[in-house]
Amino acid sequence: MRVDLFDFELPPERIALRPADPRDAARLLLLDGARTEDRTVRDLPALLRQGDCLVFNDTRVIPAQLEGRRGEARIGATLHKREGPRAWRAFVRNAKRLRDGDRIDFGEGVEAQAGERGADGSWQLTFAGDEPVELLLERAGRMPLPPYIAARRAADAADAADYQTMFAREAGAVAAPTAALHFTPALMAALAEAGIGHETLTLHVGAGTFLPVKAEDTADHAMHAEWGRIDAATAERLNQVRARGGRVIAVGTTSLRTIESAAGADGRIAAWEGDTAIFITPGYTFRGIDGLLTNFHLPRSTLFMLVSALMRLDRMKAAYAYAIENGYRFYSYGDASLLLP
């Protein structure tokens, strides 16, 4: 499909720079079949059915943004995928000053050696020493806010908490699974009281999620791979939800892509672990999910293509136009939509 079909105009003032406070006070646009309603995230217990199950991504964002020097040259690096115990793939700023084998000093006793440069322009960085890389990043790194926020304000102490979900447990993401940012212990208790269950899986979100689609046709776009896992017990519980007539509702596109990577053609979800570069565009047949809670996405992005595959492109373009006209807040710290095809 032509990528320009997924374009739309978004006024800059619609981009949220801070999350709603409290988190579950965010607005929610309900798209249930042909029905469109303005609600809030706190309404979820009334919008879902007893027996439904929400699926959350329990990845934890690491301080993956680094600033350093190679000699006199300033080098910025955003880690996006682990490649070994001490090696990470990274997008590098001022890469023209970097060569294979160069050492970068990130301060605080943290150094890395540049390795091969990939076809996508990213570099392999191998961290020196014996300390776990996670400890090095805690010392020298900072929270990697999305570029559309970072371009308008600097990361600060509030982001350390704001940019983690209440489910964050498995360290390894360089971007938050932002749909889950809306959830609070009080909301989870209300959902449980309404008979709505929840499960967790893991997908370590990479910085590739923010990269623009530069191809003119979706067939020519290469997705960045991300590592994920769903265990056998979780997979079987999700299969039982659907067998009993409940719906599996992914919270965020990361949860959805993990489930779809683990689901067979018959719709059964199996234990799965590995890299996924699944790219979902209109025409895709969904196998493991029955709905999606997600934020509002970038024009021409793979995520807007995904929601258009779930709900139809014309439906989503109309919904986004409505959201823009009615003051919904977009992107990572923005409001939510509940998509029930």
Radius of gyration: 20 Å
Mean pLDDT: 95
Q: Give the CATH topology of the largest domain.
A: QueA-like
N-to-C terminal Cα separation, in Å?
A: 21 Å
- Largest sheet report: 9 strands, mixed
Number of domains: 2
Identify the overall geometry.
globular
Share of helix among residues?
Answer: 10-25%
Task: Give the number of DSSP strands.
Answer: 17
What is the CATH class designation of the largest domain?
A: Alpha Beta
- In which order are the strands of the major sheet placed? 2-1-17-16-14-3-12-13-15
Q: Which spans of ≥5 residues are poorly predicted at pLDDT below 50?
A: none
Measured by DSSP, the beta-strand proportion falls in 25-35%
CATH architecture of the largest domain: 3-Layer(aba) Sandwich
Note down, in words, how this protein is organized:
This protein has helices at residues 44-47, 133-140, 147-150, 157-162, 185-193, 232-243, 253-262, 302-311, 313-325, and strands at residues 27-32, 35-40, 53-57, 59-61, 65-70, 73-82, 87-93, 103-105, 111-117, 123-127, 170-173, 197-203, 226-230, 248-251, 272-276, 291-295, 336-340. The chain has 341 residues and is of the alpha/beta class. The chain has 2 domains: 3-61 and 160-340, 3-Layer(aba) Sandwich (QueA-like), CATH 3.40.1780.10; 65-141, Beta Barrel (Thrombin, subunit H). The strands form 3 sheets. Strands 2-1-17-16-14-3-12-13-15 form a 9-stranded mixed beta sheet, with helices on one face. A hairpin with a 2-residue loop joins strand 1 and strand 2 (35-40).
